[in-house]
Amino acid sequence: LVITAQCDLIRVVLVSPRNPLNIGAAARAMANFGLSQLRVVAPYDPHWREAQSAVGAEDLLRRAETFRALDEAVTDCTLVIGTATIAQRKPEQPVVRLPDLSPYLEKAYAENASIAFVFGPEKHGLTREDLSYCHLLAEIPTDQRQPSMNLGQAVAVCLYEVSVRSSASVESAALPGLQLAKATSGDLDLLAEVIDRICVAADYSPRTMQEANRHDLRLLLRRFALNEPDARRALGFFRKILWRLEHPEPHTKPGNRPTEKC
Amino acid sequence: LVITAQCDLIRVVLVSPRNPLNIGAAARAMANFGLSQLRVVAPYDPHWREAQSAVGAEDLLRRAETFRALDEAVTDCTLVIGTATIAQRKPEQPVVRLPDLSPYLEKAYAENASIAFVFGPEKHGLTREDLSYCHLLAEIPTDQRQPSMNLGQAVAVCLYEVSVRSSASVESAALPGLQLAKATSGDLDLLAEVIDRICVAADYSPRTMQEANRHDLRLLLRRFALNEPDARRALGFFRKILWRLEHPEPHTKPGNRPTEKC
Fold first, then answer.
1. In three state form, how does the secondary structure of B50-75 look?
2. Is B54 a residue whose pLDDT tops 80?
3. A153 touches B at CB < 8 Å
4. CA-to-CA distance for A51 and A38, rounded, in angstroms?
5. Which of the residues A16, A23, A184, A212 has an alpha carbon 20 to 30 A from that of A67?
């Protein structure tokens, strides 16, 4: 069973859920498997907190946090796991079958990671843009003839797997600081923003390519598994470049440029 | 993923489900994990076949069989697995944690068993009488503070586990007859009925104890793991005894009894 340390490490993030009954069902499954941190991104129905389906999880639902966009909901997370069934398009990040996820979780627990489990909306699941904020994709191995799961049932299956197959090692979780903290999703977004502005300032690519570049950059930064000092150093470096690009030195006389002297 | 042979071995049995949405959700989860045989015992709502929640499983729901009682629904099954969460009363048969169920299933597949997964009604789960028809109880390891799962979610979690952690060996499933077939639930019920009548005919126990004796007998017969010839032989034996008890020989003269001659 999930132990306390582990519960605190995992957030469940629902992106644009349409049916409040599914949000309530997700909350109920969280309570069943000992989790407590629910985050809801842009819910469709303003009355979702009153979902009757959150049997025994009414408090959890009341305490759920809301966000306007996925990047805000995972900004403090260091391991963002998207979820999908086998039907969904070939994703651009590593795909792990849900029953094979435990080694990744064990590693994350040992690093005291903040983990987000992200579920897409009922109709179509996570979009390509949503997925670009995920470090990896957990695939529920459903039947090819009927791959699409109900949202509440998908949450229950994922949390069952997480709760039963892997457990946070109390020893390692109790010793933060022994390893360098991972960069959070927010750290990476800051870095991506600066690099994006550099691309614009340096006229790196045509305007029509900018959105595609941003997408690839998000994926690239998540593949690197940067730690927090890495991300901070890189941010300083790129900020400096940006500043230079945006504030070009006024043309100075050749005599003032020592490197060009000889 | 579940292979065809395996799908055909497993039936999902819902006992007295109240909410048609949960029946539909169970059907959807079955389709997600490649199962097709749904049996519904004494459903509360006559319109349950129209449940909107059976997305992609409408046919499966239409083809579901109905029964008046659990014993009828599992009569052709040789391994009946009840389901429960940790909260439920101490049961009288072996309890296996759901994540540890696969060796039992592998064995059953190898024996070409007919397996039933039995789920109780929403409010209170399977009754003590329901459980007396089960060979073992699969326990979903939920949090003690909020153990009770939604029915549709419980079905999804169980079928995920079954589909992912164990698979029927095609070779052994394709070779029936190498091992003796297990007695079905119906075989055991027949045997139990005859023994029960013997108890009455022999004036074995007071009338007030008869229901308790029947209950214990059901459990006992399921613990024995009888094969089909065992059950047939035992039935013949007990039928003979019953006939003798119910048709006592008229008092004959001592001279007609050869064993009393000398």
1. HCCCCCCCHHHHHCCEEECCHHHHCC
2. yes
3. yes
4. 14
5. A212
